[in-house]
């Protein structure tokens, strides 16, 4: 179902409470790039849909369940799970009955690139009751603080931020390992067909990650960019063809994905420091 406009349906007997984020004691949230946190105890009907938002949304379910729809996928958000809808993506979620959960709006940052462009729905790594207690204590403490300088509230904000950040990052290294394996398969495909019109966005799509994350994982695993790896594969293949065949430069250019001899020769000279014809002559 296409989501065409923002929409919210919240029953009158639902609790939909957001934590104070402006006072000085809320600084730990800002340091962790958490835009907002809320605690919700809702009843049917309860439904939220967004066309797009510039931040990720994380829902940590304490009890009950909800159904979600995002990026053409749908499913159930269960108790003791964290569901993350990525930024700049339309999504919808609605309660299936009584549902208690904590929400967190997460600003995009480098350490969250692994959740960009994909839906996350996984079991919590830690006991969610501690997070709930901290949220309730923060709300209580903030109502008694008049000058925004409560050390107790600041400490609770630090703990809440840490709990949320820990859950989001808990499988980051596993994601990098999975991405490394996926990357290897993607480049095997490129190596088999260097003549194809490969683009970075297409390669990222094949790896099932955002372009930003694709470049980040490329740098981590190969110490180069996607463009650099594509050029390397094409240049290595062109060197093989120059030395093992009598194909013309025009034919070789076509076989390694260049639209003209000029663009191929320019790329080859930039990579090898000599023109392709000279390379063939010197190594024949």
Number of helices: 10
CATH architecture of the largest domain: Sandwich
The multimeric state of the shown protein is single chain
Helical content (DSSP H or I, runs of 4+)? 40-55%
Which class of the largest domain in CATH terms?
Answer: Mainly Beta
* Class derived from helix and strand content: alpha+beta
Here the CATH topology of the largest domain equals Jelly Rolls
Radius of gyration: 26 Å
What is the CATH homologous superfamily assignment of the largest domain? Answer: Regulatory protein AraC
Q: Describe the biggest sheet?
A: 6 strands, antiparallel
Query: Order of strands across the biggest sheet?
Result: 2-3-10-5-8-11
Q: Regions with pLDDT < 50 over 5+ consecutive residues?
A: none
Assess the beta-strand content as a share of residues: 15-25%
Number of domains: 2
Shape: elongated
Count of beta strands: 11
Average pLDDT taken over every residue: 90
How does this model look, in words?
The radius of gyration is 26 Å and the shape is elongated. It contains 10 helices and 11 strands. The chain has a 6-stranded antiparallel β-sheet with strand order 2-3-10-5-8-11. A 5-stranded antiparallel β-sheet has the order 1-4-9-6-7, with no helix packed on it. 45% of the residues lie in helices and 23% in strands. Helix 2 packs antiparallel against helix 3. With 284 residues, it is α+β, with helices and mostly antiparallel strands. 29% of the residues are buried. The model has no long low-confidence stretch (mean pLDDT 90). It folds into 2 domains: 7-170, Regulatory protein AraC (Jelly Rolls, Sandwich); 174-283, Homeodomain-like (Arc Repressor Mutant, subunit A, Orthogonal Bundle). The protein has helices spanning 27-31, 128-143, 151-169, 172-192, 200-207, 211-222, 226-244, 249-255, 261-272, 276-283, and strands at 7-10, 15-18, 34-42, 46-50, 55-63, 66-70, 73-77, 81-85, 91-95, 99-107, 120-123. Residues 184-282 form the HTH araC/xylS-type domain.
